[in-house]
Protein backbone atom coordinates (compact mmCIF):
# COMPACT_ATOMS: atom_id res chain seq x y z
CA UNK A 1 0.00 0.00 0.00
CA UNK A 2 2.87 2.33 0.84
CA UNK A 3 4.44 1.59 -2.56
CA UNK A 4 1.19 2.59 -4.28
CA UNK A 5 1.12 5.85 -2.31
CA UNK A 6 4.69 6.60 -3.37
CA UNK A 7 3.81 6.02 -7.02
CA UNK A 8 0.77 8.26 -6.72
CA UNK A 9 2.93 10.97 -5.16
CA UNK A 10 5.44 10.69 -7.98
CA UNK A 11 2.62 10.92 -10.53
CA UNK A 12 1.30 14.11 -8.92
CA UNK A 13 4.77 15.65 -8.97
CA UNK A 14 5.14 14.78 -12.65
CA UNK A 15 1.73 16.24 -13.44
CA UNK A 16 2.72 19.51 -11.79
CA UNK A 17 6.15 19.71 -13.40
CA UNK A 18 4.72 21.64 -16.38
CA UNK A 19 4.29 24.65 -14.07
CA UNK A 20 8.07 25.18 -14.06
CA UNK A 21 8.07 25.64 -17.83
CA UNK A 22 5.77 28.64 -17.42
CA UNK A 23 8.28 30.55 -15.28
CA UNK A 24 10.24 32.12 -18.20
CA UNK A 25 7.09 33.38 -19.94
CA UNK A 26 5.62 34.64 -16.66
CA UNK A 27 8.88 36.42 -15.85
CA UNK A 28 8.97 38.10 -19.26
CA UNK A 29 5.34 39.18 -18.87
CA UNK A 30 5.99 40.62 -15.41
CA UNK A 31 9.10 42.53 -16.51
CA UNK A 32 7.92 43.86 -19.87
CA UNK A 33 4.14 44.16 -19.36
CA UNK A 34 2.91 44.19 -15.76
CA UNK A 35 5.80 46.22 -14.31
CA UNK A 36 5.57 49.05 -16.92
CA UNK A 37 1.81 49.31 -16.39
CA UNK A 38 2.22 49.51 -12.60
CA UNK A 39 5.03 52.06 -13.00
CA UNK A 40 2.90 54.13 -15.37
CA UNK A 41 0.00 53.97 -12.94
CA UNK A 42 2.28 55.23 -10.15
CA UNK A 43 3.77 58.05 -12.23
CA UNK A 44 0.28 59.26 -13.18
CA UNK A 45 -0.15 60.32 -9.54
CA UNK A 46 3.10 62.32 -9.50
CA UNK A 47 4.45 65.58 -10.91
CA UNK A 48 7.08 63.75 -12.96
CA UNK A 49 8.65 66.02 -15.59
CA UNK A 50 11.68 66.09 -17.89
CA UNK A 51 12.86 69.57 -16.91
CA UNK A 52 12.47 72.08 -14.10
CA UNK A 53 11.96 71.61 -10.38
CA UNK A 54 9.63 68.62 -10.87
CA UNK A 55 12.40 66.74 -12.67
CA UNK A 56 14.70 67.12 -9.66
CA UNK A 57 12.14 66.39 -6.96
CA UNK A 58 9.41 63.83 -7.57
CA UNK A 59 6.23 64.49 -5.59
CA UNK A 60 3.02 62.55 -5.10
CA UNK A 61 0.15 64.86 -6.10
CA UNK A 62 -2.80 62.46 -5.88
CA UNK A 63 -5.47 62.75 -8.54
CA UNK A 64 -4.46 66.24 -9.71
CA UNK A 65 -3.40 64.95 -13.13
CA UNK A 66 -6.76 63.23 -13.61
CA UNK A 67 -8.70 66.32 -12.50
CA UNK A 68 -6.65 68.40 -14.91
CA UNK A 69 -7.24 65.85 -17.67
CA UNK A 70 -11.02 65.85 -17.36
CA UNK A 71 -11.12 69.65 -17.13
CA UNK A 72 -8.92 70.06 -20.21
CA UNK A 73 -11.12 70.71 -23.29
CA UNK A 74 -8.36 69.38 -25.56
CA UNK A 75 -8.76 65.96 -23.95
CA UNK A 76 -12.42 65.86 -24.96
CA UNK A 77 -11.48 66.90 -28.49
CA UNK A 78 -8.79 64.20 -28.58
CA UNK A 79 -11.24 61.52 -27.42
CA UNK A 80 -13.73 62.57 -30.08
CA UNK A 81 -11.03 62.61 -32.78
CA UNK A 82 -9.84 59.18 -31.65
CA UNK A 83 -13.34 57.73 -31.94
CA UNK A 84 -13.87 59.28 -35.40
CA UNK A 85 -10.51 57.96 -36.58
CA UNK A 86 -11.24 54.55 -35.05
CA UNK A 87 -14.71 54.15 -36.57
CA UNK A 88 -13.75 55.60 -39.94
CA UNK A 89 -10.48 53.78 -40.55
CA UNK A 90 -10.90 50.55 -38.57
CA UNK A 91 -14.52 49.63 -37.89
CA UNK A 92 -15.81 50.79 -41.28
CA UNK A 93 -12.76 51.24 -43.51
CA UNK A 94 -10.41 48.32 -42.95
CA UNK A 95 -13.09 45.87 -41.86
CA UNK A 96 -15.54 46.49 -44.72
CA UNK A 97 -12.96 47.01 -47.45
CA UNK A 98 -10.92 44.01 -46.33
CA UNK A 99 -14.02 41.81 -46.38
CA UNK A 100 -15.12 43.07 -49.82
CA UNK A 101 -11.69 42.42 -51.34
CA UNK A 102 -11.56 38.92 -49.80
CA UNK A 103 -15.11 38.20 -51.03
CA UNK A 104 -14.35 39.37 -54.58
CA UNK A 105 -11.20 37.22 -54.66
CA UNK A 106 -12.90 34.10 -53.31
CA UNK A 107 -13.82 32.40 -56.59
CA UNK A 108 -11.07 33.94 -58.74
CA UNK A 109 -8.10 32.02 -60.16
CA UNK A 110 -4.78 31.82 -58.37
CA UNK A 111 -2.99 34.35 -60.60
CA UNK A 112 -5.69 37.00 -60.02
CA UNK A 113 -5.58 36.46 -56.27
CA UNK A 114 -1.81 36.64 -56.24
CA UNK A 115 -1.65 39.92 -58.17
CA UNK A 116 -4.41 41.68 -56.22
CA UNK A 117 -3.12 40.29 -52.92
CA UNK A 118 0.39 41.63 -53.64
CA UNK A 119 -0.96 45.09 -54.47
CA UNK A 120 -2.99 45.26 -51.24
CA UNK A 121 -0.17 43.81 -49.15
CA UNK A 122 2.24 46.48 -50.40
CA UNK A 123 0.64 49.08 -48.13
CA UNK A 124 0.69 46.80 -45.11
CA UNK A 125 4.32 45.67 -45.30
CA UNK A 126 5.53 49.24 -45.88
CA UNK A 127 6.74 50.86 -42.62
CA UNK A 128 4.26 53.30 -41.11
CA UNK A 129 6.51 56.32 -41.45
CA UNK A 130 7.17 55.53 -45.13
CA UNK A 131 3.40 55.23 -45.71
CA UNK A 132 2.93 58.59 -44.02
CA UNK A 133 5.52 60.28 -46.25
CA UNK A 134 3.95 58.74 -49.37
CA UNK A 135 0.52 59.94 -48.30
CA UNK A 136 1.87 63.40 -47.46
CA UNK A 137 3.26 63.58 -50.99
CA UNK A 138 -0.09 62.43 -52.37
CA UNK A 139 -2.29 64.86 -50.39
CA UNK A 140 0.19 67.76 -50.28
CA UNK A 141 -0.52 71.15 -51.85
CA UNK A 142 1.69 70.27 -54.83
CA UNK A 143 1.14 66.54 -54.47
CA UNK A 144 -0.06 63.83 -56.81
CA UNK A 145 -3.78 64.37 -56.19
CA UNK A 146 -3.65 68.06 -57.05
CA UNK A 147 -1.53 67.25 -60.10
CA UNK A 148 -4.30 64.93 -61.30
CA UNK A 149 -6.85 67.68 -60.63
CA UNK A 150 -4.83 70.13 -62.72
CA UNK A 151 -4.95 67.75 -65.70
CA UNK A 152 -8.73 68.13 -65.72
CA UNK A 153 -8.63 71.87 -65.13
CA UNK A 154 -9.81 71.59 -61.53
CA UNK A 155 -8.48 73.93 -58.80
CA UNK A 156 -5.96 72.63 -56.29
CA UNK A 157 -7.21 71.78 -52.81
CA UNK A 158 -5.27 71.97 -49.55
CA UNK A 159 -6.36 68.50 -48.45
CA UNK A 160 -4.31 68.36 -45.26
CA UNK A 161 -5.79 71.68 -44.15
CA UNK A 162 -9.42 71.50 -45.29
CA UNK A 163 -10.14 67.77 -44.71
CA UNK A 164 -7.22 66.49 -42.58
CA UNK A 165 -9.29 63.85 -40.75
CA UNK A 166 -10.44 62.29 -44.02
CA UNK A 167 -6.84 62.26 -45.24
CA UNK A 168 -5.48 60.36 -42.23
CA UNK A 169 -8.47 57.99 -42.25
CA UNK A 170 -7.85 57.11 -45.91
CA UNK A 171 -4.15 56.76 -45.15
CA UNK A 172 -4.74 54.30 -42.33
CA UNK A 173 -7.22 52.34 -44.44
CA UNK A 174 -4.61 51.96 -47.18
CA UNK A 175 -1.96 50.96 -44.68
CA UNK A 176 -3.96 48.40 -42.70
CA UNK A 177 -6.62 46.86 -44.96
CA UNK A 178 -4.40 43.95 -46.00
CA UNK A 179 -4.54 42.46 -42.50
CA UNK A 180 -8.35 42.26 -42.59
CA UNK A 181 -8.22 40.91 -46.14
CA UNK A 182 -5.95 38.03 -45.11
CA UNK A 183 -8.10 37.19 -42.08
CA UNK A 184 -11.31 37.15 -44.12
CA UNK A 185 -9.71 35.19 -46.95
CA UNK A 186 -8.88 32.39 -44.52
CA UNK A 187 -12.38 32.51 -43.01
CA UNK A 188 -14.20 32.52 -46.36
CA UNK A 189 -12.14 29.57 -47.60
CA UNK A 190 -13.48 27.57 -44.64
CA UNK A 191 -17.13 28.17 -45.54
CA UNK A 192 -18.40 24.78 -46.84
CA UNK A 193 -19.08 25.00 -50.57
CA UNK A 194 -21.83 22.38 -50.16
CA UNK A 195 -23.92 24.84 -48.16
CA UNK A 196 -23.65 27.50 -50.85
CA UNK A 197 -24.40 25.01 -53.63
CA UNK A 198 -27.46 23.74 -51.77
CA UNK A 199 -28.67 27.33 -51.34
CA UNK A 200 -28.23 27.99 -55.06
CA UNK A 201 -30.27 24.87 -55.87
CA UNK A 202 -33.00 26.14 -53.54
CA UNK A 203 -33.10 29.39 -55.50
CA UNK A 204 -31.22 31.68 -53.13
CA UNK A 205 -29.58 34.80 -54.59
CA UNK A 206 -25.96 35.79 -53.96
CA UNK A 207 -27.14 38.42 -51.49
CA UNK A 208 -29.20 35.86 -49.56
CA UNK A 209 -26.27 33.43 -49.49
CA UNK A 210 -24.04 36.19 -48.11
CA UNK A 211 -26.51 37.28 -45.42
CA UNK A 212 -27.96 33.89 -44.42
CA UNK A 213 -24.93 31.60 -44.77
CA UNK A 214 -21.56 33.32 -45.15
CA UNK A 215 -21.81 36.09 -42.52
CA UNK A 216 -23.28 33.86 -39.76
CA UNK A 217 -20.59 31.24 -40.46
CA UNK A 218 -17.70 33.71 -40.05
CA UNK A 219 -19.30 35.80 -37.28
CA UNK A 220 -16.61 34.94 -34.72
CA UNK A 221 -13.88 35.83 -37.22
CA UNK A 222 -15.50 39.21 -37.87
CA UNK A 223 -15.60 39.99 -34.14
CA UNK A 224 -12.02 38.81 -33.56
CA UNK A 225 -10.71 40.84 -36.48
CA UNK A 226 -12.67 43.86 -35.29
CA UNK A 227 -11.00 43.63 -31.88
CA UNK A 228 -7.50 43.27 -33.33
CA UNK A 229 -7.93 46.12 -35.82
CA UNK A 230 -9.45 48.36 -33.13
CA UNK A 231 -6.51 47.84 -30.76
CA UNK A 232 -4.03 48.45 -33.58
CA UNK A 233 -5.78 51.66 -34.62
CA UNK A 234 -6.02 53.03 -31.08
CA UNK A 235 -2.22 53.17 -30.92
CA UNK A 236 -1.58 54.73 -34.34
CA UNK A 237 0.89 57.57 -33.87
CA UNK A 238 3.56 57.79 -36.57
CA UNK A 239 1.12 58.00 -39.49
CA UNK A 240 -0.82 60.93 -38.01
CA UNK A 241 2.22 62.73 -36.61
CA UNK A 242 4.10 62.62 -39.93
CA UNK A 243 1.08 63.65 -42.03
CA UNK A 244 -0.47 66.43 -39.95
CA UNK A 245 1.28 66.58 -36.57
CA UNK A 246 -2.17 66.57 -34.99
CA UNK A 247 -3.18 69.75 -36.82
CA UNK A 248 -4.26 72.05 -38.13
CA UNK A 249 -4.94 73.17 -34.59
CA UNK A 250 -6.40 70.11 -32.90
CA UNK A 251 -8.31 68.81 -35.95
CA UNK A 252 -6.41 65.50 -36.00
CA UNK A 253 -5.13 65.41 -32.43
CA UNK A 254 -5.91 61.90 -31.19
CA UNK A 255 -5.08 60.63 -27.71
CA UNK A 256 -1.64 59.21 -28.70
CA UNK A 257 -0.71 62.54 -30.31
CA UNK A 258 -1.96 64.56 -27.32
CA UNK A 259 -0.17 62.22 -24.91
CA UNK A 260 3.11 62.67 -26.83
CA UNK A 261 2.76 66.44 -26.88
CA UNK A 262 2.16 66.64 -23.15
CA UNK A 263 4.87 64.16 -22.19
CA UNK A 264 7.71 64.96 -24.61
CA UNK A 265 6.94 68.40 -26.02
CA UNK A 266 5.68 70.07 -22.83
CA UNK A 267 7.85 67.74 -20.70
CA UNK A 268 4.94 66.85 -18.35
CA UNK A 269 5.51 63.11 -18.02
CA UNK A 270 3.12 62.69 -15.09
CA UNK A 271 0.27 64.25 -17.03
CA UNK A 272 1.24 62.27 -20.12
CA UNK A 273 1.11 58.96 -18.25
CA UNK A 274 -2.38 59.81 -16.96
CA UNK A 275 -3.51 60.32 -20.57
CA UNK A 276 -1.89 57.02 -21.57
CA UNK A 277 -3.94 55.23 -18.91
CA UNK A 278 -7.09 56.76 -20.39
CA UNK A 279 -6.06 55.27 -23.73
CA UNK A 280 -5.40 51.92 -22.05
CA UNK A 281 -8.83 52.06 -20.41
CA UNK A 282 -10.49 52.66 -23.78
CA UNK A 283 -8.71 49.60 -25.19
CA UNK A 284 -9.79 47.43 -22.25
CA UNK A 285 -13.44 48.53 -22.48
CA UNK A 286 -13.60 47.89 -26.22
CA UNK A 287 -11.86 44.50 -25.84
CA UNK A 288 -14.35 43.41 -23.18
CA UNK A 289 -17.20 44.51 -25.43
CA UNK A 290 -15.86 42.43 -28.32
CA UNK A 291 -15.20 39.40 -26.10
CA UNK A 292 -18.75 39.54 -24.79
CA UNK A 293 -20.04 39.80 -28.35
CA UNK A 294 -18.12 36.64 -29.27
CA UNK A 295 -19.66 34.75 -26.35
CA UNK A 296 -23.14 35.81 -27.37
TrEMBL record:
Spans traversing the lipid bilayer: 20-43, 79-103, 115-139, 151-174, 222-243, 269-291
Signal peptide: none
PROSITE patterns for this protein: ABC_TM1 (PS50928)
Assigned keywords, A-Z: Cell membrane, Membrane, Transmembrane, Transmembrane helix, Transport
A matching Pfam family: BPD_transp_1
Protein's cellular compartments: Cell membrane
Entry-linked InterPro entries: MalF_N, MetI-like, MetI-like_sf
ABC transmembrane type-1 domain mapped to chain residues: 80-290
Stored SUPFAM superfamilies: MalF N-terminal region-like, MetI-like
Membrane topology field: Multi-pass membrane protein
GO CC annotation: plasma membrane
GO annotation terms (biological process): transmembrane transport
Domain of life: Bacteria
Transport is among the record's keywords: yes
Family membership: Belongs to the binding-protein-dependent transport system permease family.
Name used for this protein in its record: Sugar ABC transporter permease
Organism, scientific name: Cohnella terricola
Amino acid sequence: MSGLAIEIGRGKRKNKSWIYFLFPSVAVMLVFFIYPILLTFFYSFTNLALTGESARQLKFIGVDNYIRMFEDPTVRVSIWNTLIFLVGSAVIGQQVLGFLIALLMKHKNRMFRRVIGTIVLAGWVTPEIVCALCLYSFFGDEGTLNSIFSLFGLPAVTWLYTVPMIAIILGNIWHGTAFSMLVFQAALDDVPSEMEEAAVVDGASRWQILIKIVLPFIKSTITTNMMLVTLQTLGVFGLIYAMTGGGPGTATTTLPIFMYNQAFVNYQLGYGTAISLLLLLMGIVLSLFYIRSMKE
